[in-house]
Each structure stands twice: as structure tokens, then as C-alpha cells.
Amino acid sequence: MVPLLLVLLLILVLFGTGFAVEALWYIALAVLILWALGFLFRSSGSRWYRW
User: Fold this and answer.
1) CB-based contacts of 42: which residues, under 8 Å, 6+ apart?
2) Letter string b/e over residues 23-40, b meaning 16 or more CB atoms within 10 A of that residue's CB
3) How far is the C-alpha of 44 from the C-alpha of 51, rounded, in Å?
4) What is the distance, to the nearest Å, from the Cα of residue 33 to the centroid of all Cα atoms in its chain?
5) Least CB-packed of 1, 31, 36, 41 within 10 Å?
6) Which residues have C-beta within 8 Å of that of residue 39, sequence separation ≥ 6?
7) pLDDT of residue 47
8) pLDDT digit string, tens, across residues 4-51
9) Are 48 and 39 in contact (CB under 8 A)?
10) In terms of DSSP H, where are the helices of 1-51?
């Protein structure tokens, strides 16, 4: 019974880690796109970022 629970726990941990890593890739891609759009559509003479 204990080995079965350990395997199920391992599966849950690996599934959660895989989901988190994939979500971070999507977040990084969205930030990159926003950065590129801000760089391309900047007004002349001003900074391309707002911070």
C-alpha cells in the first residue's frame, strides 16, 4: 500500500512541476512579445519602457 501511495505522490509532483514549467514558458513568451511591441511602437524621443 505504501509503495502505491509513493508512486501516486511522485506522479502528482511531476505533473505539477511540468504544468508550472510550461506555464512559466508561456509567461516568458508573453513578456517577450510585450517587450518587442513596446520597442517597435515607441514614440520618437521617449523611452520604450514605462518604469
Assistant:
1) 48
2) eeeeeeeeeeeeeeeeee
3) 17
4) 13
5) 1
6) 48
7) 60
8) 888 888 888 888 888 888 888 888 889 888 888 877 776 655 665 555
9) yes
10) 2-40
